[in-house]
Amino acid sequence: MLLVNIGILGLGTVGGGVVNVLNKNQKQIIRRSGNNINVTHAAVRDITQTRICPTKNIKLTQDPFQIVNNDDISVVLELMGGVGLAKNLIEQAIKNGKHVVTANKALIATYGNELLALAKDYNTHLLFEAAVAGGIPILKSLKDGLSANQIELVAGIINGTSNFILTEMHNKDRNFQDALKEAKALGYAEANPTFDVEGIDTAHKLAILASMAFGCELQFNQITTEGISNISSEDITYATKLGYTIKHIGIAKKLNDKLQMHVRPTLVPTTHLLSNVNGVMNGILIKGNAVGETLYYGAGAGDEATASSVIADLIDIIRNTANHDIFGWKSLINITKCNTNSIASIFYLRLLVTNKSGIVKDIKKTLANYDINIEAILQKKINQKNDLHIALITNLTNNSKINKAVTDIQKYDYIIDEIKIIFVETLN
Fold this sequence. Notes:
Layout: E1 2-9, H1 13-24, H2 26-33, E2 35-43, E3 59-61, H3 65-68, E4 75-78, H4 84-95, E5 99-102, H5 105-121, E6 126-127, H6 138-145, E7 151-157, H7 160-172, H8 176-185, H9 194-197, H10 200-214, E8 224-225, H11 233-241, E9 244-255, E10 258-269, E11 281-288, E12 292-299, H12 303-319, E13 336-337, E14 344-354, H13 359-368, E15 374-381, E16 387-394, E17 397-398, H14 399-409, E18 420-424
């Protein structure tokens, strides 16, 4: 049995979780890997800080380059986060002949193409299962379990913070700010939650999923991204009455050799399994042309959940079962992004109007000018002035037509506020 020395960059939540799981499941991991894994060094910001894991047998340093330049270390686990320094450290580790495992979705989404090519040049491995959906082995499922399929759709709730906020708004009739405050109090949201609530974190993960699913180069900058901060408690309520749940979803589809990728709040039918992925949990729907629909559910974050994926990659490297195929493909292709104006969708509209006769007739007529019909509609009086909310679901149309129709409707003098538009996904 060989002794494999490991160096960890960052001994916070995930790094500490890795050490704890390695200790807790030591016998199981030895049986699976055939080797003894020994964490010898860890780079940290503050050596004196209290850790969530034992560090008695780990040499701590504040210089991360001591880890990547240490000849006795075979595998480096990059769990520190950030992009600039992490990229430099991974490059140095690879050039020194070390394998690397990372949970850094921002880094992979931004620089994954070149880092994976570098690893291939130096005959080392760079694995990143934990970068997407924490403990859910979704990348291995795409790369291996679904490799016989032509993937048609990837749709995921892959940010626990935004999902928790929308769940709180739905279950407890809270507004966005109150739900965000609760998420922060429970440790589910950062002090600055922009990456989570505005969809950037989900876009990082979606870029990786799309590359795995469709064999294309990473295209993070091509993803249309919209956050949830403008979702109101009224939208949550009206969506429910119309038979939908609002979720923050990342979607990638291949349509006529073009790629549609977006992150946005979306109305999902309450009958669909994804509508029941609640709290901080993650859920990912993958549709293949042979297997049909498959759904993956689990913890998308957390110390030991994420550590589970990190260690699974580590075991693959030790077993020599990892390969150099970039994103699971022998070669990658360029796929053109779809024109967003031509994207077909159903839409939810919410209007705030001064109540008067003929409003619904006007709306129907204007929508009909663009071949748009109303499939469902509800009205609610909201104040003593007799103002109304009108919420409706359209038939299948496209982005260009709905925007033109809404522009025309917005001109009516009884429209009080900007009309809210939210995409509806049946996920068929």
